[in-house]
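Why run this: before we spend reagent on co-expression, it is cheaper to look at a predicted model of the complex and decide which construct boundaries make sense. The entries below are exactly what would go into the expression plan.
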Amino acid sequence: MFASLRPWMAALSATALLAAACAPSAPTPPAPPAGQGQPAAPVDSGPFPTKPIEIIVPFAPGGGYDALARQLAVPLQKELGQPVVVKNVAGGGQRIAARQFQQSEPDGHTLLYGSDTPLYTSTFVDAPEGFDIFSWLWVAGIRGQTPMVAVPSNSPYKTLEEVLAADKAGKKLRFGHNGIGGFLPTQVAFANAVGIKNGVWVGGFTGTADIAPAFVRGDLDIEVWTPLSSTTKFVESGDFRPLAVLDAKRSPTLPNVPTARELKWPGVEKLEALGSQSGIAAPPKTPADRVAKLEKAVLNALKDPDFAKWAKDTGVAEDLIPSTGKEFGALKLKEYGLWKTLSEDLKKAVN
Amino acid sequence: MFDLSPVWAALGQLARPEVFGLMLLGNVIGLVFGVLPGVGGGNAFILFLPLTFGWEPEVAIWFLMGMQGASSFGGSLPAILIKVPGDTVNAVAIFDGYPMTRRGEATRALGIDVMSNILGATIGAIVVIALLPVMRGAVLLFGPAELFWVAIMGLFTIALASGGNFLKGLSGGAVGILFSLIGYSSVIGVQRFTLGRDYLWDGVQLISLFIGLFAIAQVIEFCTAEVPISRLTTGFKGFEGLRRGAVEVFSMPGHLLRSSAIGTLAGIIPGIGATASAFISYSMAIQFSKKKHLFHKGNPEGLVAANASINAKEMGSLIPALGFGIPGSIEGALILAALLFHGLQPGPFLLRDQPGIVWALILSLWISNVFGTLLGLFWANWLSRLMAVRVVYMAPIILVSSLMGVYLVRSNIWDIFMAIFFGVVGYALNKAGFPVVTFVIGFLLGQLAERYFFQATQIGLGDPAIFFDSPISLTIAGITALMVVGVVVSGVRSKRAAAAEVQV
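The model came back. Tokens follow.
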């Protein structure tokens, strides 16, 4: 009788061991005062890097962030003299990765490259514990994603004015999204900025992969698409009718599409801040000299000819915003400030 | 019609010895990863993608597709031989493949497996090539309303798949639906049954559930029964059994065509996964079969339905990737990742600007399906001897491999605990006589039905007419209604027959 219990006991004890191993470590330190906590004084923290460097990407393999991280890892490896490995920690609206990153050893060997904007905006709806974006150290800015406002090519609307007039007449305007950790914040912020009152937030999509076909079918009326580089193909193919790009200047790949500023759209200041920037972060308390070394390596890697060629071929090059950690941190603070003002609208859109 | 020169160019690539060699190498890797329970072809793809850095894109495609094409056949081998699926899509092959093995017909089952794999991929390839000029329209045919009906039709197949016990089948399906609702719902913006944990934000992971229900549950079964997997001497008896099995597939053109069509369609429409389409095609095979009572007991038709749809699905998933540059499924996402990695912009212009790449994709996926399957045959001989391996050696290997596979997907330790939990659930379901298949269908389609219902309602601004305004919606709804009538009629008939017998 006991013999038959053996496998069960074995399974149980293994479970207990594993559970102990992955129990959350010490609670996260209290958040430092607001503002990107750039390391204070550079002290020599010894030789670095001494082992492979891991870049956590909070998405499953195959997406845009993953592709860029893997391409960048190659020249970065040359710069740092240690292997650079991309680790995909998908799930939980990036929160699982954020938590893992926050708790990782702050020795410069663990970095994060993800999309922090949704990670931040989703905190308006619930207050997740275990990570604090404001404590992260920015190593370098990588990519700025310019949004584009478009309607399907068979839409009756040709300008924002026509859209706004329809809205005023009580017409419902359908936007597609994939949740608070996805495209929803941008849609709500756009509607808020230009004054659309009758927005309908059609949820349940997984991302561009199913929003785009629904859009082309005419199931949706208008959409803010980010990033530009992954949607230009739909403009070129004639599926989307672009109304404007939300950036200070026109996009080189879509030179015929005007900017919101040229068209004098309402709330243009807010609209231009909608593009989400992404950079590489190091966990809090990483020694300053290591962050500086990583910053230099990343900025050099971005200039690597092979990487540059890949970026050009895939259209990513246009979005690249190589910037120092300090510049990027300042940019982020400004961006978070804008989202903060929209927190109430976001909560309403979700419920 | 078509300009055929890129086709010849793509085929010409294969004539280069290094390309052919790399494709075969890809096949072998795909087979190994496929055979290992829990570790699917997707893992191989991700693992080896960085290796192709700096290769010519065409060469990398032949290699990567070589892995992709072979892995699903690899995964069907352990499903048929030891009742442990290599990957989630292979779970359906268990239902009729393993009972055949127990009957001593392992070679016949493998023959059917091989031929239905090859033919499924071939039919899928033909459909994809035929659809190339209109592929964008094909993707757009299905919106949320149409997909809602697809999910509903799939859910109704629970009644068909219940086998003997209607009540147990339906209740299993209902519990499956409940499990599918766990997680953050972006339609209604709330978390359900997540116990306040981010881990459950994305819901129950498909891989954890499948590995638990099929692999772990089977390991528990092995450990408690303490017998070799098959007491029968079902070793490989030469090619005669294989040949018979292979030829047999041609005697079921209906099942073959229907399953391939379901698979290809599931590949084309973003939203229905390979695993769900395999289960739907299996249930439909039951519906249309004259030997309904033989399913789950080693009916070759079930095996054909399972395999053909998986391989056709792989081909179909090329369509959204080529037509729109969007991933229709996990397979499609991998293909897009490969293209992007090699600096190619997937999307509507790939066919116009780089037809060579497009044809390399189609041909490499198809040819590697054929070659990988044939290559896998040589293994079958060796693998079928596994059945004689004692459980003390076999069980730990399956356990480690499958839990590793679960962990590989997103490096989350809780996915492993989840798999163990579902292992216990699966074992209990089996013991209590609940058909696992209805539980799985409920899980795969419950949340989809809900999501598409909400989406369609929002898109239609609350007007239910959206559910009936396209011919496709009406057709699928009609088929579903006919299915329901069929089930009721056959239920009433069998009751009458039973009553008549009692009176006599």
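Chain B touches chain A through 59 residues (CB under 8 Å). The beta strands of chain B are 183-185, 190-192. Bring this page to Monday's planning discussion.
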